[in-house]
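In this notebook, the sequence line spells out the residues, with the fold written below as integer tokens. This is how one looks.
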Amino acid sequence: MIIATAGHVDHGKTRLVMALTGVDTDVLPEEKRRGMTIEPGYAHADLEPGVTVSFVDVPGHERFVKNMLAGVAAIDCALLVVAADDGPMPQTQEHLAVLELLGITRGAVAITKIDRVATARVEQVRSAVELRLRAGSLRDAAIFPVSALTGEGIATLRLHLAQLQRTLPLRAPHGAFRLAVDRCFSRPGAGTIVAGAVLSGQVAAGDKLVIAPAGHLARVRGLQVHGRDVDRAQAGERCALNLAGAGGERIEVERGDWIVAPSAHAPTMRLDASLRLLADLPTTLKAGASLQFHIGAATCGARVIPLAARQLEPGTTGPVQLILAAQVSALHGDRFVLRDAAAHRIVGAGFVLDPFAAARHRARPERLADLEVLARPGKAGAFESLLAAHAEGVGWTRFAQAMNLDAGEQAALRSQVPAHEVAHEGGVRLVAPAHWQALQHRIRQALADWHVQHPDSLGMTEAQLVLALAPMADGALRRSAIRDLRAA
């Protein structure tokens, strides 16, 4: 389980993590000098025997919200920290908004510094926190008054976090391996080390991976989880990878890069997504708005095009197309956050629907229907609905990559959803049985009509028949259907 702190600057997040884990996550000299977290810090602890939890301590100052977003890119739970002397503050609310937009529903609240105030003040702050949580995704979060200085309440909080770990559904290592890099450095004698959260799949020493979005190949020399050498790491864990160039050459990795299996390497600069705007935005979101796009630990500029209407109203959710200023690694379901161009405030957040968005016909009704299908949970149901909606079929290769389906998942989905396979430019295309039968019926009808109109002819050539079927289906599909009938 990965837990991220959240809350206003100087509310005691780092000291609380140290009290829970024994690790001081402020490691930069500037952080020590200023007494302020600038970069996300990382720690882990065995809260109970056999219950190891990773902590991400994020910056609380408004100037470092970008770094905070990198820290919460792939977390399971949140630990909201509110100081008893200050109570909820502006960054408390902003961090809560981020957690809400990212769909984080599990967590706890720590009211810190209770050694500095009277009991009545602690209860006032508890009431204020409960009021702010009441309508949000963390409304069920338990609240714990604690003091990192005296240790009061720390043991109870540890027990609660251990209980959260036990009740958290295990993430199965489905899909191709993907790790969002939030730390990278070189170590003498070891070479390049990268660390981050594993979003999907699993990895082992010796695996060949890709540094995305650049596309450079790398090999895993070794890996660690919670500071211990391991043979394998998987989704739901933070891990560190010792990487080397696939041919032994030096490699370059930056925070914001992704380390992925070759099958998951699909860099994009245009994607369709579901976007939810904050309710307190002062204006609507109009087509062409320039914003800052945050995904994983990566950041780049983006132009936003609402698709279902000319603009998106505050507090609403709708489909959008994001046109990015740089390539990113993104697949279906990946969550992102948008900030305004000056990076002063959060605008909204959402999740990727189609990382292979097309520039043309992006707002046609049939395309909007596709995006509505892709926004629903369940990959098999989405694929079945897409097959039913498209007489010409669905590109299976692109669908499987966008959904990050591993070989086993692909085989299971293919057996679950019957379809006719057609070799097509760019990979395999699958057609629903009803559409395939309808196309073959039209072929027979075209042949019958030809013989009525040309009783002395020996028959149509394949080229004539393909032309006669236009524009019922594209050329590859027509030819495949004709040959399938001929072989029957």
